[in-house]
Amino acid sequence: MSDTDRTYDLVVWGATGVAGRLVAEYLTEQYTSEDLSLALGGRDETRLRGLEAALVARCSGWAELPIVIGDATDPESLRAIAEDTRVVCTTVGPYTRYGTPLVEACISAGTDYCDLTGEVNWIREMIDRYHDDAVDAGARIVHSCGFDSIPADLATLLVQSFAIEEFGTPCELVRIYLEDGRGGVSGGTMSSVVEVFRAASTDPVARQTLRNPYSLAPAGERDGVDPGAQSLPRKDPLRGEWTAPSPMAVVNERVIRRSNALLDYPWGREFECREVVPVGSGPIGMVGASAVSAGLWLATGVLAVGPMREALRRFAFPDPGEGPTSAEIENGYFTIRVLGRGTVTDGPFVVASRISADCDPGYGATAKMLGEAAMCLVNEEIDSPLEGGILTPAAALGDPPADGLRRAGLVVEVGEWDPDRTSRLQTARER
After folding, report:
1. Backbone torsions φ then ψ of 246, nearest 5 degrees
2. Other C-beta atoms within 10 Å of 420: how many?
3. Which pairs with CB-CB distance under 8 Å and at least 24 residues apart come from 50-55?
4. What are phi and psi of 119, to 5 degrees?
5. pLDDT for res 14
6. What Å distances lie between residue 243 and 25, 62, 210, 231, 292, CA to CA?
7. Cβ distance 163 to 340 under 8 Å?
8. Measured between alpha carbons, how far is 260 from 157 in angstroms, rounded to an integer?
9. DSSP string, 154-189
10. What is the pTM of this model?
């Protein structure tokens, strides 16, 4: 089926959930019906009609928003939706439980797809089961298009592209720093966390996926020189301050390594990346890094124990459908900085990029990231040689999402690193 035969450019699947509603709000505020043929998808027609009415009332660029009805557990309804749209943007998780039938439907229909998953065990399953089929179908299945993992993946791509353009060689070492942030969590996010730990407790492949730094690389290429995520306090080689492990490293580092592999190793096969949380210098920094590390180890240990994990799910975590308030989303923020070190005949060089936002990273900013990833697919604003497969944001889209994120109010910069004048980075694509 050709794209011209499709009724819609884009379906937001799970539009009445916490994340789905934010994506729908963002798209209808940022674009109009002249820019985009948009439909809202889900299983509850009454709630979808209510969302449609609210969005049309608040956004003058939309007279109506069609709705499509289906069920995440009903392959036939998902196939019909996939066949009627060019791109499906889904927020329905946990993806380990609900995501596979929609991926199958999109590949069968040759429909592009993007999601928010950080469930590395499920991404590995999709790679092993469907990558070749997606390549053959010309379907771009783009995982991890939210806070996991667009800031880390895109910022690394920007650093490497700048290094190659300015110095003629990529960085052999990249550090991703979760410098600052504040945000809330929803029941859906915590359900996804629980699913990852539950899978690791019962599935040997899931356990191996979490242990192997290269577990998302193509089959036959799942080893290398990179030792993987930092697990203890460590003094950083580029910034000279103490750092602690990042809770997002388990996802982001593997996604970045897969980007390098899918693009045929433009950053080299000995490329190393590490995501950390910078804490500070001197004894205070060491104590802070130790405290963060201990807290992360404790949380991981608790979630690894089945009865304790289930008790947290039932009594401590938000219920599915619950999430941060509008005020909490508006008052959130984050800064991700990436430093890359390379070497030329004159000596080493360091390139820096920064992605930051003045809104909740997991919801307000994530809605913009996912929405802009979807729009890149809709508009074919893509700088990548890949036309299908189970892909990462950087490998599927290249750097065009940077422009959309800047229009949405995020800061996206890249340039040579000057620790005394960090604000003088170039804006992305001003090179």
Report:
1. -100, 135
2. 5
3. 51/15, 51/16, 51/21, 51/24, 55/24, 55/25, 55/28
4. -85, 90
5. 97
6. 37, 47, 21, 10, 9
7. yes
8. 9
9. HHHHHHHHHHHHHHSS--SEEEEEEEEEE----HHH
10. 0.94
Q: CA 246 to CA 120: how far, in whole Å? A: 15
Do 63 and 354 touch, CB atoms closer than 8 A? no
Distance of alpha carbon 183 from alpha carbon 331, whole angstroms = 8
> At which residue do the structure tokens 């800064």 appear?
335
Which residues on adjacent β-strands are paired with residue 411?
356
| Residue 94, preceding peptide bond in cis (omega within 30° of 0) | yes
Averaged over 395-402, what is the pLDDT? 97
> Both tokens of residue 39?
């439909």
pLDDT tens column, 77-97: 999 999 999 999 999 999 999
Per-residue tokens: 268: 């080299």
pLDDT digits (tens, 9 = 90+) for 198-233: 888 899 999 999 999 999 999 999 999 999 999 999
| 8 Å CB contact between 186 and 92 | no
Residue 239: the pLDDT is 92
7-39 pLDDT per residue, tens = 999 999 999 999 999 999 999 999 999 999 999
Look up residue 348 and give its two tokens. 């080493």
pLDDT tens per residue, range 241-250 = 999 999 999 9
The Cα 383–Cα 343 span in angstroms is 26
> Alpha-carbon distance 121 to 101, whole Å?
16
350: number of CA atoms within 13 Å, CB side? 12
Strand-strand pairing, 389-391 and 140-142: parallel
Q: How many Cα neighbours within 13 Å face the side chain of 166?
A: 20
The secondary structure of 344-383 as a DSSP string is ETTEEEEEEEEEEESS-IIIIIHHHHHHHHHHHHHHT---
Residue 45 pLDDT > 60 = yes
Decide if pLDDT at 166 tops 80: yes
- Count other C-beta atoms under 10 Å from residue 4's C-beta: 6
pLDDT band (50, 70, 90) for residue 173: very high
Task: For residue 355, give the nearest of 420, 428, 429 by alpha carbon.
Answer: 428
- What are the residues facing 344 on neighbouring strands? 347
* Pairwise CA distance, residues 131 & 173, whole Å: 28
